[in-house]
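Repro case for the chain-ordering regression, as requested:
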Amino acid sequence: MTTAALRSTTLGRSRRARGGTNPWYYVTPAMVIVGLLTIAPLFYGLYLSFTNWSLLHSQSPSLQGIDAYVAVLNDPNFWGNVARTVGWTIGTLIIEVVVAVPFALLLNRRTPITGTLTGLVMIPWITPFVVLAYAWLFLYDGTSGPLHGLLHALGLVGPASPLATPSTSLWSITLISGWKGIPFLTIALLASLKSIPEEVYEASAVDGANRFKGFWHITLPMLRPTLGAMCVVLGVQAFYSFDLVWILTQGGPGYSSTLLGVQLFQTFFNQASPGQAAALGTLMLLLAIVLVVPILRTTARRND
Amino acid sequence: MKVGRTLVAAASVAALVAGLTACSSSGDPSKDSGKQTVTFWQFDTAKPTIKAYNDAIAAFEKKNPKITVKMQIVPWANQQQKITTAIAGGGLPDVSMLGNDVVAQYAASGNLKPLDSYIDAWSKEEGQNIKDDMYSGDTSYYTYKGKLYGSPVADETRMVYYNKALFKQAGLDPDTPPTTWEEMQKAATALKSTGKVPWAAPMSNQYITVQTFMSVYLSYGAQLFNSSGKCGLDTKQFKDALTYYSGIAKAGLTTTDAANQQASDLDNLFMSGGAAMEIQGPGLYTQIKDQNPSLLKDVGIAPIPSGPKGQFGFLGGWPLVMWNSTKVPDAAAKWIHFATSPKGGLKEIAATSGILPGRKSLANSAPWNTEPFTGFAKQLTKAYPYQYPAGPSPKMGEIETASVQTAVQQVATGALSVDAATKQLCSNINGILAK
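-- result from build under test --
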């Protein structure tokens, strides 16, 4: 060990021994930013949820216990919106996983067009959301939409756009939501696939495993941590969805595609009730935690 | 050494906080120069309207060199969100446009400044009683608990636009447009033979739906509120109106996607000759003139049809209002008066927007004394608020968006029966009223 290195190590030890506070100096600015931008609004939202503040009745919030929560839970549409949001989230994830896994496996093979295909796959992800929504609005159009024409010919939808029909509006938007998330999951899985050593497959082939067994016993278990983490990210994103539904149907016809995100928007802006909107947001957070924790636990257990 | 690091850390935190503080404060550059700045939210995104407002602002600033008007364009579609966010978090303008139906809402919540004392002063300045120069519908909409909160810019009502060529093609007399809802339905049924959309009747959860449907339910004798101030729609009159209007969709007389289309979709359809009839305001005439002038020779405009209880037009419009948070009320009032006065910028603003000015004395002069504006002005005398005969309701904004349109949409798409939709509608309205 050189003298300089020795001095450095000694200094480091002596700082730790003093219980030095140096790291705080560096972390503080970042913590202030994180605190201001995320934690403070979270706590303010939590505070607002106990106020039942309505802009139509008072200029400023004042604490009113759990009134806002009671109002939200007594809303006749709340539980229907919960069911639709959970169904939408699960539906979105199923579409994403069912399409992205084989897609990633396909792109993992070395072919002359793999690079181009990988680039093309990203298009839905990088295209602005509003552009995509209007493109789908056209595809589903009841008069001239090609996708509607196909679905109608197959007898899956009626003469009107599936977005204008209560029985089909939710699943037709779920399809778009899933489609939109496929690229992100595909690329994440592809990166994970690239990290699996070729030797593992070669060894399994020597032991007599066929391709399916190789997929089932090697690929899938090794993809599981990535798949679990991505399901959490994409699931949370789908759970809080608002923009896609708002652009395409505004939650209609009737309440057939109203998600909790849409209800939250309407509670705040149409009903001018920040208190109830905050209570709904808090309930959504709790529900998201309830849905996410089992996935994280399962992934963590399997990793152990 | 330790002191030095502490100072560096403290300085970086202080700089960060100072930076954030600076970001959140826009400052008031007008303080030093003695000038006052009036912030103004304008909701119309059409280029001619924006130009008309810019011209009006230039003329106003020339006349009032110590006042600067800072206009911000907030599209109609986003204004409600923007206002709600500003009320909750700060940042309201001094003056803004506002939908006539929500003036009472913001007046009731204490966010608007009454304009009575200003209007009295302006009346002396103009040499006429401004309240007498306003349409009675506007006076009713903008008055809350005896105080006036809006100075009218524009008024509008809806009439039946119809395509005379398609009428002829269907064997209908193009000079005898339908005068009742029953005749409207009969004409639509005949127009099916043209292969075009007979009547671009909205069934979506957009404003256009309630703006059209209200003419039907009022003419059937239905009333939004009963004598006890609760939902008054659970009646035979309303159910008959809802059956009639949703029946247009069920009979295939409107577009197949009417339950999910915006007003602009239906306007474009009529303008391209793809629909035979549409109920719309004077703005559509200006749009046709600009975008498809060749269609004008085939366009007929007829009064809104009557129902069993008479003829009831939609009463649209918007005033300028002053927000209570303003720090420059007198300068704001001066701008409101200039922009809404026939002797100020109102003529130019209304003429370029293709709407009717909110002052009767101006509406009786050119260019509004020619067709089709005279027809709209005449229709305006039979235009009523959604809640007619009741007065303005602070809850109207929420009721019209959250309830009435949804009921129409649900019946039109077959999701609910007329009875079930009416029951749900009244439950929703009473829930909103009880808050």
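Ordering looks correct now. Residues 60 and 338 of chain B are 7 Å apart (CA to CA).
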